[in-house]
Design brief:
The complex is a heterodimer of chains A (about 575) and B (about 425).
Chain A lengths: L3 E6 L11 H9 L4 E7 L7 H12 L3 E6 L6 H10 L7 E5 L1 H6 L5 H21 L7 E3 L3 E5 L3 H12 L3 E5 L22 H14 L3 E4 L2 E9 L2 E8 L2 E7 L1 E4 L3 E3 L14 E3 H10 L6 E5 L16 H15 L4 E6 L8 H11 L3 E4 L7 E3 L6 E6 L4 E6 L2 E4 L3 E3 L3 H8 L25 E3 L9 H18 L4 E3 L15 E2 L9 H5 L5 E6 L2 E6 L9 H5 L5 E2 L5 H12 L4
Parallel strand pairs in A: 1-2, 1-3, 3-4, 6-7, 6-12, 7-8, 12-23, 14-21, 15-16, 15-21, 16-17
Antiparallel strand pairs in A: 5-24, 9-10, 10-11, 13-22, 18-19, 19-20, 25-28, 26-27
Chain B lengths: L9 E4 L3 H12 L4 E4 L23 H13 L3 E4 L2 E9 L2 E8 L14 H5 L5 E3 L9 E3 L9 H5 L12 E7 L1 E4 L3 E3 L16 E3 H8 L20 E5 L17 H15 L4 E6 L9 H12 L2 E4 L2 E6 L6 E7 L4 E7 L1 E4 L3 E3 L29 E3 L9 H17 L10
Parallel strand pairs in B: 1-2, 1-9, 2-3, 9-20, 11-18, 12-13, 12-18, 13-14
Antiparallel strand pairs in B: 4-5, 5-8, 6-7, 10-19, 15-16, 16-17
The chains are: A alpha/beta (about 575), B alpha/beta (about 425).
Chain lengths: ~575, ~425
C-alpha cells in the first residue's frame, strides 16, 4: 500500500467548527496506508505551501490527500503550489470538506462528518491506484492547409505567411476570391469587391511560402494535430501533403429561391446575387424596385437569420438610387438586422437616402403582381396597418446563405460535427473558431454566414490559432488539454488482455482507437494525439483492458467499495 | 516564427473575454504579454453572467479555464486592480505607466469565509461576482466607514486599508484595447422610470438578482417585497438606437432578453414574460432558433413597441408600462410586477475611469476609431464595436494576429 499523508484543514473554523477534525483524523488513521495526518488552520495561504511540502517529505509519504475546500476555489492554489514543489499531480487527492460538507450540511453536523469521512476514505483508496497517462510527443509539421480561397481563407493565408508559416491553399474553383468574385461592392466601406481582395491575392501569389491548388478536392485525410496527412487532387494531379493544422474556410452558397415570390416564373424577379451581376455588367435598369427580405430564411425550413442579407440589401438599395437617379427602392423586411455601431449608422444612412422601408409579418408575406412581367407588389404594411400596392418593375429577393453541400462529406472526412443547418460546429462560444478536433479550425461562412469583413477577421483569428499550435517544434498529447494539469490523460490498452473485439473502435467518436494486427492477433491501439479521454471505450470494453489511467477501474472500484462496502 | 522587429511585450488593456483571448493567443504564439485589468479579478462582464446564450451553459467552466491558463502562463503577466496611467512613444517602442491600487482584501489571503460581510455594520463587504476566480470578497470603499470591524474579524489578516499604490513602467511594443463595456445610467431618461421603483432594474442587475449562485439561488422574486412576480416586462433598446442618447444598437441585448425570459419561464412557468422590442436582432450562430424556440414554446409574448412611460403604481403595487403596439396600432397600458431595462450599455473607454491622455482615438459614439492612425493601437471586443462573447473572442484573436504581423490598424475592418 502506498504511504499516504492526510492534511485536514480547519479553514479557520469554516470546516473545523462544523466537523470534529481531531476525531476525523483518528478515524482516517485506521486506514493502514495513512502514515500521518496533520490538522492545520490553513493550507492555501502563501506561507503554507513550503511548510506542507516539507511535512510531506518528512513523512516519507508517496500520496497526499488534502481535506480542504473546493478545487474550483482555493484548493486549486494548493494543487498548483504543491506541483511547483515537485509533487506529482496524480499523487495529490483533493477532498472538498468545506463547500461539499461543512457549508452545505450546516443543519446536519453528524451527516457532514460521515460524508467527510466517506469522501476521505474514498479518495485515499482511489489515490493508491491512480496512474498517469504516458505522454506522446510528436514532431510538428509547420505548415497549414486552408480549405477555401474566399476572403476568410485568403486572410488566414496572408496572416500565416506573414508569420513565416507555409500555407497550402486549396480551392474548389479555378481562382481565388470566393463569393467576392460574384459581387460588385462590399458593405460598409463601399469598396469594390475586386479592390478588397486584390491585396490579399497579390501578396499570397508573390510569396513562395504559399502554394495555391486550384480545382482541388481532398481525397483522403488522416492524422492528428501537428501532423495531418492529406491527399488532394488538384487540376487532375495527385498531391500528398503533411500539415500541422487545418483551417476550414470553405464558405457557403446562395440559395436559388425557386417557388418563392414567383422566382423562376416571372422574368424580373431576381436575387440579390443577380442584381450584383447586373451592377458588374452595368445593366441595372429599374424605375421602381422592391427588395424582399428573408426570402427563404427565418421560416420553418431554414429557421435562421443569415446575417448578411439585410446589410447587403441596404448597400444595393443605396446603389440603385445612386446609379439610377429618380428610381425608387422599397425594402420589405421583417426585422432589420443591423446590430452594432457601424451597421446601425449604415442603416440610418440608408433611411436618409430615401429608401423606403415597409415592415411585413411572416404570416402575411408580400405578393408579386403581374402576368408576364412584374407589375408591382402588394404588401400588408404591418406598422401602418394598411395593404399597400407598390408599382414596381423589379423584385429583388434577399436570400440567405446556405451551407455548402460538400460540408457533410468534409465533416465526415475530418471527423467534425455540423450544426442542425449544416454549417460547421464550434466547440463553444468562448472558443468560436475551434472545433472538436484539435488542430482543425473554422472561420468565415463555413461556420456561419458572415460579411466579407467579418470573414477576414475570422480568417485572421483562425490563423493565430493554427500558428500558436505550430509555434513549438513539438507537441505533446497532454499539452492539447485546454485545462492545464487537469486533463484526464488518454485511454490505454493492455496488450496482454485485449481480445481485439473492436467495441472500442466502434464507439470512439474521435477516431482514436483502431485495430492493429500484432503477431497474428488483432489488438486495439489508441492514438494519444486524438484521444480526448471521454471514456466511451472504457465503458464498452468487455474485460477492462481499456482504461483511463487517471480514473481507472481499480481506483473507481476502490472508491465504490469504500463508499458502499464489499458487495457480495 | 517571424515576429515584428521587436521583442518587447504587448500590453493588453482589459481582462474580459476579449483580453483573455488576445493574451492567450499572443502567448501561445510566443509573444510576452502584460494583461492589465482595472477590476479585482479576470473575467470581465461575462464572469457576472449566470448563463450565456445560445448554449445556455454556465459561463464559469470555459472562463475559469481561460483565467487559470492566463494566470499560469509563463509569458503572461497579469496586473489586476491596475490602470494604464501614461503611454509615451519612445524610439521603437512605447513606455507604459501602470498603477496598481491593491484592493483592501488581499486575494492571496481571502479564504472566502464571509465573516467580513457578516461583521460589517455598513454592509460594505460583498462577495465578488458569482464566477470570479479565485473566489474573493471585496469592500465597497464608498460605503465603508473605516470602522475597522472587518480588519479584526478577518481570520487570515487579509484586510488592510493602507496598502500603497504601486506603479511600474513597462516598455511595450503594442497596445491592444479590450476594455469592454459598461452600463450607462438611464435615469436621465425619465420615461423609463429607472430609480423610481426597486423592481425597475437593468438587465445586468436582474441577471445577478436571479443567478443560480446569486442571492435568491435562481428563484425569481421581486426586489421590493421578495414575492413571486406575476409578470415581467423586458424593455429593449433602453436608451440605445436613440439619436439623443445612444445612437448605436448594443447588439447583445435582444439575445440577452430572450435568454433571461426563457430562464424565468424555466424556473417558474407561471410568470408571464413580455418582450417589448424594436427589431429582433438575432444574427449570430444559432441565435434565431434559440430566440424563437423559447418564445414559441414557452409563451413569451413579443410586442413590437417602445414604451412611452414606465411608472410605479400608487402604493408601489406594480409598475405601469404605457406603449403602442406598432403591429396592432393600439395604445396600451399594462401592469407588470417587474420591468427589466435592456440595451443601456456602452464602450468602457468613454468612462471617467479612463485616463483621457492614453485612450485611443474614439468615434463620436465612443468606440475605438480605426480610421485614425494611432500608431499600433489595436482594439477588440466591445470597445471596438458592440460584440457578444463569440464575437469578442473572434476579434481578439484577429487583434492578436495583427499585433504579431505588424498590420497597420488602418487596415482594420469592422462591420
Amino acid at each position: 500500500m502506498a504511504k499516504t499523508i492526510i492534511f485536514l484543514c480547519r479553514c479557520f473554523g469554516e470546516i473545523g467548527a462544523a466537523i470534529d477534525l481531531d476525531h476525523l483524523g483518528e478515524r482516517v488513521k485506521e486506514d493502514g496506508a495513512v502514515v500521518a495526518t496533520s490538522i492545520v488552520d490553513s493550507l492555501c495561504l502563501p506561507e503554507d505551501i513550503k511548510n506542507v511540502a516539507s511535512l510531506i517529505r518528512e513523512s516519507g509519504a508517496e500520496k497526499v490527500v488534502i481535506g480542504g475546500c473546493s478545487p474550483f476555489g482555493r484548493a486549486d492554489f494548493v494543487i498548483s503550489g504543491l506541483t511547483r514543489e515537485g509533487i506529482e499531480r496524480e499523487n495529490i487527492g483533493i477532498v472538498d470538506l468545506r463547500e461539499a460538507c461543512s457549508w452545505i450540511h450546516r443543519d446536519d453536523p453528524q451527516g457532514a462528518v460521515t460524508k467527510a469521512w466517506n469522501l476521505l476514505a474514498m479518495e485515499t483508496g482511489a489515490l493508491e491506484h491512480r496512474k498517469r497517462s504516458e505522454d506522446a510527443v510528436i514532431k510538428v509539421r509547420p505548415e497549414v492547409m486552408i480549405i477555401g480561397a474566399g476572403p476568410a481563407g485568403l486572410a488566414a493565408a496572408r496572416s500565416l505567411i506573414r508569420l513565416g508559416i507555409r500555407v497550402h491553399l486549396i480551392e474548389r474553383g479555378g481562382s481565388p476570391g470566393g463569393m467576392l468574385n460574384l459581387i460588385s461592392h462590399v458593405y460598409p466601406s463601399g469598396e469594390s469587391a475586386g479592390e478588397k481582395i486584390a491585396p490579399y491575392v497579390e501578396e499570397i501569389e508573390k510569396n513562395t511560402l504559399a502554394v495555391f491548388y486550384p480545382k482541388a478536392k481532398i481525397t483522403s485525410f488522416k492524422g492528428f494535430a501537428g501532423d495531418f496527412k492529406v491527399t488532394l487532387n488538384a487540376n487532375e494531379k495527385e498531391h500528398y501533403i503533411r500539415v500541422g493544422a487545418v483551417i476550414i474556410a470553405s464558405g457557403a452558397r446562395t440559395l436559388l429561391p425557386y417557388g418563392l415570390y414567383r422566382y423562376g416564373n416571372l422574368k424580373n424577379v431576381i436575387t440579390q446575387m443577380e442584381l450584383e451581376r447586373q451592377f458588374i455588367k452595368g445593366t441595372v435598369n429599374t424605375r421602381s424596385a422592391v427588395f424582399i427580405q428573408c426570402a427563404g430564411a427565418r421560416n420553418h425550413d431554414r429557421p435562421y437569420c443569415a446575417t448578411i442579407c439585410c446589410p447587403s440589401s441596404l448597400k444595393n438599395a443605396m446603389r440603385v438610387m445612386e446609379e439610377l437617379p429618380g428610381a425608387k427602392v422599397f425594402v420589405l423586411h421583417r426585422d432589420i438586422m443591423t446590430p452594432g455601431s457601424v451597421m446601425e449608422s449604415y442603416y440610418r444612412k440608408t433611411l436618409s437616402q430615401g429608401v423606403q422601408f415597409i415592415r411585413f409579418e411572416e404570416s402575411t408575406p408580400p405578393v408579386v403582381l403581374g402576368e408576364d412581367q412584374v407589375r408591382g407588389v402588394e404588401v400588408y404594411d404591418a406598422i401602418n396597418g394598411v395593404t399597400r400596392k407598390i408599382d414596381a418593375d423589379l423584385v429583388v429577393l434577399s436570400t440567405p446563405l446556405v451551407p455548402n453541400e460538400e460540408n457533410r462529406k468534409l465533416a465526415d472526412m475530418l471527423n467534425l460535427q455540423l450544426d442542425r443547418y449544416g454549417f460547421f460546429s464550434e466547440i463553444y462560444p468562448l472558443h468560436p473558431l475551434e472545433t472538436r478536433i484539435d488542430g482543425v479550425f473554422i472561420c468565415g461562412s463555413a461556420r456561419w454566414p458572415v460579411s466579407s469583413d467579418q470573414a477576414i477577421v475570422q480568417g485572421e483569428g483562425a490563423a493565430i490559432k493554427a500558428a500558436s499550435l505550430l509555434a513549438g517544434k513539438e507537441i505533446s498529447a497532454l499539452s492539447l488539454s485546454r485545462v492545464p494539469g487537469v486533463k484526464t490523460g488518454h485511454a490505454t490498452v493492455s496488450k496482454d488482455s485485449c481480445t481485439g473485439c473492436g467495441n472500442c473502435v466502434s464507439v470512439c467518436t474521435f477516431e482514436a482507437c483502431r485495430l492493429q494486427k500484432i503477431d497474428g492477433n488483432y489488438i486495439s491501439r489508441v492514438n494519444k494525439m486524438r484521444c480526448k479521454a471521454c471514456g466511451n471505450c472504457v465503458a464498452v470494453c468487455p474485460n477492462g483492458t481499456m482504461q483511463l489511467p487517471e480514473i481507472n477501474y481499480r481506483a473507481t472500484g476502490e472508491m465504490i467499495r469504500r463508499a458502499f462496502g464489499d458487495m457480495q | 516564427m517571424q515576429k515584428k522587429n521587436n521583442t518587447s511585450p504587448v500590453l493588453i488593456i482589459g481582462g474580459g473575454v476579449a483580453g483573455l483571448t488576445a493574451a492567450l493567443d499572443l502567448a501561445a504564439a510566443g509573444q510576452a504579454v502584460h494583461l492589465v485589468e482595472i477590476g479585482g479579478s479576470l473575467g470581465g462582464q461575462v464572469a457576472k453572467l449566470d448563463k450565456i446564450y445560445p448554449t445556455d451553459h454556465c459561463a464559469f467552466c470555459p472562463l475559469w479555464t481561460d483565467i487559470k491558463r492566463c494566470r499560469e502562463h509563463p509569458l503572461i503577466t497579469v496586473h489586476t486592480s491596475s490602470t494604464l496611467r501614461e503611454l509615451k512613444k519612445k524610439d521603437s517602442h512605447m513606455q507604459a505607466l501602470i498603477v496598481k491600487k491593491p484592493p483592501a482584501i488581499d486575494e492571496a489571503r481571502c479564504i472566502f469565509c464571509g465573516r467580513c460581510q457578516k461583521g460589517c455594520p455598513a454592509g460594505a463587504a460583498y462577495p465578488a461576482g458569482v464566477h470570479t476566480y479565485p473566489p474573493v470578497y471585496r469592500i465597497d470603499r464608498d460605503a465603508c466607514t473605516d470602522c475597522g470591524a472587518c480588519v479584526t474579524i478577518c481570520p487570515t489578516g487579509a484586510i488592510d486599508f493602507h496598502r500603497r499604490e504601486e506603479s511600474m513602467t513597462l516598455a511595450v511594443s503594442d497596445v491592444v484595447w479590450a476594455a469592454g463595456f459598461r452600463e450607462i445610467d438611464v435615469s436621465p431618461l425619465k420615461e423609463f422610470g429607472y430609480g423610481s421603483h426597486r423592481d425597475i432594474m437593468t438587465s445586468l442587475e436582474f441577471e445577478e438578482w436571479t443567478a443560480e449562485a446569486g442571492p435568491n439561488k435562481g428563484t425569481i422574486l421581486t426586489k421590493s417585497d421578495r414575492s413571486i412576480p406575476e409578470s415581467i416586462a423586458f424593455i429593449q433598446c433602453t436608451g440605445s438606437r436613440d439619436q439623443k442618447f445612444l445612437p448605436y444598437c448594443s447588439a447583445v441585448c435582444c439575445m440577452h432578453a430572450f435568454k433571461q425570459a426563457q430562464w424565468v419561464q424555466r424556473r417558474n412557468p407561471a410568470v408571464r414574460c413580455v418582450i417589448l422590442y424594436t427589431d429582433l436582432r438575432t444574427v449570430g450562430k444559432d441565435y434565431y432558433a434559440y430566440a424563437l424556440r423559447e418564445a414559441r414554446g414557452n409563451g413569451i409574448t413579443l410586442i413590437r413597441g417602445r414604451p412611452s412611460l414606465i411608472h410605479p403604481l400608487p402604493g408601489g403595487n406594480g409598475i405601469a408600462v404605457k406603449f403602442e403596439d406598432t403591429i396592432t396600432q393600439k395604445r396600451e397600458i399594462w401592469k407588470f410586477d417587474m420591468v427589466i431595462l435592456n440595451g443601456n450599455i456602452g464602450p468602457s473607454l468613454t468612462g471617467d475611469a479612463r485616463e483621457k491622455s492614453v485612450a485611443p482615438a474614439l468615434t463620436g459614439e465612443g468606440f475605438i476609431d480605426t480610421g485614425v492612425d494611432e500608431g499600433s493601437r489595436i482594439g477588440c471586443g466591445f470597445s471596438l464595436e458592440p460584440a457578444d462573447v463569440a464575437e469578442s473572442a473572434i476579434r481578439a484573436s484577429s487583434a492578436a494576429v495583427r499585433v504579431i504581423t505588424g498590420q497597420d490598424s488602418r487596415q482594420d475592418e469592422r462591420g
